[in-house]
Design brief:
Chain lengths: ~375, ~375
């Protein structure tokens, strides 16, 4: 085994290391802090954070079959500016990777048999989706994912169906984003964890139309285990394979929240206002939680400072009474979905934000309008 | 006064605010946290941190004469994407700045008479220098400025003369950088504080050849004041005016350090090695203080990990025994002055680094070579 070597393009190796580094964590368990390169019939790099496992396939010419651990940050920096071929071999059980310009050794003493396998259970549903479509859908909802750990079941994106059409949903209780996918779905409803969503956004090309294959699995609770069956999701791109646990919990009845907002507004909103990317680019950054008052009848959007004085004022198009959001939520919303039209029935009732793409709808709860009694 | 207004180009206003924001500090004394716009015969913006005061001149059409305080972060964000004209006026004593897209009000309640004036004393020496020349000179030495506050007199760049030629020097005790300016100097020796050096690097164009005018002043110690006279420096660009205190202290005898290093090496160094930008780009970033061994006779540069194992190895050109620097210092040095040739007399004696520009010389103290007894 010691004279086994693999030769591959240095650029591709660096690109693959950068991808798997997204799921790797600086961990005190050595095997979780590294990427494992496997030179077998289907050479690949893999890394895991126990909840996700990412495999990126490599094109390599090899003699023999072997595995080595690689420290992605060291290798990415060392080989980052290199071109040409890299040769991977074993030196006393550890990686020895050389190009004409630089060599990287180790890390040593890592038992590759410790690499944990993520059980994705029994496949129960499969579907395919174009890269660009998945990217746009995740982009449209991920800003609304909750980061509050007590309601852990909100820490991801809910994959579900609306009248048989696949839909993604995310909410943190203050805003709720729903995106319709224009494709049928009759598989299980699962909650895809936020870190997996971010990994997918790294892997998937924004403008790609290559088909991705997704599989939902059911992981049986172990014998004598108090829990119930859980779900996992596997997504395959042309050169990568991502496995992830799903969040084990019950997603709240988001349709009720959205339904109530839609019903309250009815077909005839009394308040309308258009918020653009130019608007949010001008909002102060230093205290992004400060109230931003949208006052369509006055034709202005106003931001107050900590002393309750208006400091920034912009023209606003719309009709109806003044309402208010914090600057941070406005920035995230418009950053994710572009210009939106807000419609509402009253300043203290939920607003609906509609972007240019009508497949995305966001419900957002207003703040109390500053300076207003009540 | 209340109907006084000034009209100016929004882009120029934002550019000027960005410049003065470099010396402004988020301070609990309101007047130090803002920029003051003065619309008089020579309209300008100014800001101070008590040690430096920067004035940037504005082109404005005005009616009346007035002053207002502006909060740079709010105004920069609000007007950042705007073009066309901005109108500045007074609203209840506070700024009211409008463009066609956005208006900024306040801050209110700031007494502009509180703006402190930096006393730069009696001018004792004047010289002119081209922008690009000053930029290159500061760039060549500033990496070596000490950040350790106990030896406060090292927290700046020393302006001095070597055989009548103007020179800049910086050192933190581990390395010493000296740059000869190719122009005569017979003025006072002063220590220009690091923050002033950074402000100058923001103001001065790297490739500019406009002449800057510099004045050294002597500030008399106040009557009954225990201290002695101190120095100040004033630099004038075509559209700005920077005043700064100099550090009140005695710069160490840097020529002795440099002279000893040069003498020890003599004309015949026993160690030579060339370190390039490609080398430093490949050094691990995660622990930048780790030892980097330069081993010219073995033809390699090697970086160790925390377990004393070599992890990155690169070809190195040179002759002589192995010596060692930390990766951070190598990165800073080569980042500042480009590729260098190190010459030395012994692995534990000071090394001299010579960049392509022979007007810059750096003396650098080596570390103990890891794994070597002694």
């Amino acid at each position: 085994m010691t004279d086994a070597t693999a030769i591959l393009d240095t650029r591709s190796l660096v690109d693959a290391l950068k991808l798997v580094d997204v799921v790797r964590e600086a961990h005190h368990i050595p095997i979780l802090a590294v990427a494992v390169a496997n030179f077998d019939d289907k050479p690949h790099l893999k890394a895991t954070d126990l909840d996700q496992e990412l495999t990126v396939f490599l094109k390599a010419t090899r003699t023999g079959e072997f595995q080595v651990a690689i420290d992605p940050p060291t290798a990415i920096t060392a080989f980052g500016n290199s071109t040409g071929a890299a040769t991977v071999s074993l030196d006393d059980g550890a990686a020895y990777i050389t190009t004409s310009q630089v060599a990287v050794r180790g890390p040593k003493g890592i038992d590759l048999n410790d690499f944990p396998t993520l059980n994705t259970g029994k496949p129960v549903h499969r579907f395919t989706i174009a890269e660009g479509k998945l990217h746009a859908a995740l982009q449209a909802v991920r800003f609304a994912i909750s980061t509050e750990e007590t309601r852990y079941y909100l820490n991801g994106v809910f994959l579900t169906a609306v009248d048989g059409e696949m839909a993604l949903v995310a909410t943190d209780g203050h805003r709720l984003a729903r995106h319709l996918m224009e494709m049928p779905y009759d598989g299980p409803q699962v909650i895809i964890p936020a870190p997996t969503v971010y990994t997918l956004q790294h892997l998937v090309k924004r403008d790609g139309d290559a088909p991705l294959s997704a599989t939902i699995g059911v992981v049986a609770a172990g014998k004598g285990h108090a829990g119930k069956d859980t779900h996992a999701i596997v997504v395959d791109g042309d050169s990568w394979h991502l496995k992830s646990r799903c969040i084990d919990g019950t997603y709240p009845k988001w349709e009720v929240v959205m339904g109530k907002a839609v019903d309250a507004i009815g077909g005839a909103p009394t308040i309308r206002a258009t918020v653009t990317q130019a608007h949010v680019s001008r909002l102060p950054k230093d205290n992004s939680w400060r109230p931003t008052t949208l006052d369509p009848d006055a034709g202005t959007m106003r931001v107050r400072n900590d002393y309750d004085e208006d400091v920034v004022e912009m023209p606003l198009k719309g009709t109806g009474a003044a309402f208010c959001f914090n600057a941070h939520y406005l920035r995230q919303l418009v950053g994710a979905v572009g210009d939106v039209e807000f419609t509402g029935s009253a300043p203290d009732a939920p607003f609906i934000a509609t972007p240019k793409n009508p497949k995305t709808v966001v419900v957002q709860m207003p703040m109390k309008v500053p300076g207003k009694k009540g």
